[in-house]
Write a structure and sequence with these properties.
The chain has 13 helices and 9 strands. By secondary structure, the protein is of the alpha/beta class. The protein has a 5-stranded mixed β-sheet, sandwiched between helices. A two-stranded antiparallel sheet has the order 2-3. Strand 6, helix 6 and strand 7 form a beta-alpha-beta unit. The radius of gyration is 25 Å and the shape is elongated.
C-alpha cells in the first residue's frame, strides 16, 4: 500500500467517517449506522488454492483497506452486515475483479467458520446427508458484504464499473449466463451539492475540497459559506496533502486548520500554478528566459522565487 492509500485508510478507519460513508451509500445520508455499533475486523483475507497438498501452491494473503462489522436498525429490523472500504488515490482499471475476489473470500471465510463451529459443538446429529457432507446447515445464514470504493482524487472514474464491461465478448446470449459484479463508488467529481450535503462528518469537507481543488470560484464560495468555520484535523489534512498534492499549513498547535484558511491556501496554490503555466508558455512560444517572461507578466518579487522553483 502506497503512502496515499495509507493516509486515506487511516482517515477512513475512524468510525464516524466510516459510518458516514456507508450511510450515504446505503441510506441516502440517513443516520442509520451508528459509529458506536461498528467493530473493526481483520482486513487480511487468506486464499488457499484447491488441488491437495501436492498440487496446491502457497496460500495467498490479500489485504483490504478497512473492514468493519455493524449492527444497524432498519425499519424496526436488526441488520447485521460486513462493510469494507477500498480507498483509491487513482482509478484502478481492474477494480470489479479485485472487489469480487475480496467479497468471495469473505463469504468463503463465513462458510468455513460455520463448518468449524458445527464440528466443535458436535451438533451434526440429526443433520441430513446434504448438511453433513457440506458442513453447512440449512439454518445457517451468511452476513451480506458491502464493499465501497472511494476515489480520493479529483478525476472522473473512467474505468470499468462492472465485470461485464471488462469482457471482450459482449454477446448478450453468453453474458446472460455470466453473473455480473458491480462496484459501489464514491467519486468526488461526480457528486452534486445536494449529495455532498448528505455527509455529516468531515468527509463532506474532504470530498468538497477534492472536487473543487482546481476551481478558485468554488473554493471562495466554500470559504464564505457556513463550512468556512468548520475545522479539519491532522488526518483530514494528511489525506488532502498527499492525495491532491497540496501543502496545507496547520494553525495554532499544529493540529487543526479552518476550512476558510484551507480554501484560501488552495486558492493561492492555484494562482501560483497559473503563473507558472503562463511563464512556461512564454518561454516555449517566445524563446524567452524565465526572467524575461516574468518581467513581461509583471510578476511580483515575492512570487518570483516560488515560480522559479517550479519551472
Amino acid at each position: 500500500m502506497g503512502v496515499k492509500d495509507t493516509v486515506a485508510a487511516r482517515y477512513m478507519r475512524q468510525n464516524e467517517v466510516f459510518a458516514d460513508a456507508f450511510n450515504f451509500l446505503l441510506y441516502h445520508g440517513r443516520q442509520v449506522i451508528a459509529p458506536d455499533n461498528l467493530t473493526e475486523l481483520d482486513t487480511r483475507e487468506i486464499e488457499v488454492p484447491y488441488g491437495g497438498k501436492d498440487g496446491a501452491k502457497q496460500p495467498i494473503q490479500r489485504t483490504r483497506d478497512v473492514m468493519k462489522s455493524v449492527t444497524a436498525m432498519t425499519d424496526w429490523q436488526r441488520a447485521y452486515m460486513i462493510l469494507a472500504a477500498e480507498n483509491q488515490s487513482s482509478v484502478n482499471l481492474a477494480m470489479p475483479v479485485k472487489n469480487l475476489v475480496y467479497d468471495a473470500l469473505q463469504y468463503t471465510r463465513q462458510v468455513e467458520l460455520a463448518v468449524e463451529s458445527h464440528k466443535r459443538s458436535g451438533d451434526y446429529k440429526g443433520a441430513d446427508d446434504e448438511e453433513f457432507l457440506s458442513g453447512f446447515m440449512r439454518s445457517d445464514r451468511l452476513l451480506p458484504v458491502v464493499t465501497l470504493v472511494i476515489l480520493f482524487n479529483s478525476q472522473e472514474w473512467d474505468g470499468p464499473v462492472t465485470l461485464h464491461e471488462m469482457f471482450d465478448c459482449q454477446d448478450q446470449n453468453v453474458l446472460a449466463f455470466v453473473p455480473d459484479y458491480k462496484i459501489n463508488l464514491i467519486v468526488p467529481s461526480a457528486l452534486n451539492e445536494e449529495e455532498l450535503g448528505r455527509f455529516h462528518s468531515t468527509l463532506r469537507e474532504v470530498l468538497s475540497f477534492i472536487k473543487y481543488s482546481d476551481s478558485a470560484e468554488k473554493l471562495e464560495a466554500m470559504a464564505n459559506s457556513e463550512m468556512g468555520n468548520h475545522t479539519l484535523g491532522r488526518k483530514e489534512i494528511d489525506v488532502l496533502n498527499y492525495c491532491i498534492g497540496v501543502d496545507f499549513k496547520m494553525e495554532g498547535n499544529g493540529e487543526r486548520v479552518t476550512m476558510c484558511k484551507a480554501a484560501q491556501q488552495l486558492e493561492e496554490r492555484g494562482r501560483l500554478k497559473m503563473l507558472v503555466a503562463n511563464v512556461k508558455s512564454l518561454m516555449r512560444t517566445m524563446g524567452w528566459t524565465a526572467e524575461h517572461a516574468m518581467d513581461a507578466l509583471d510578476i511580483s518579487d515575492s512570487d518570483r522565487q516560488t515560480v522559479s522553483s517550479q519551472l
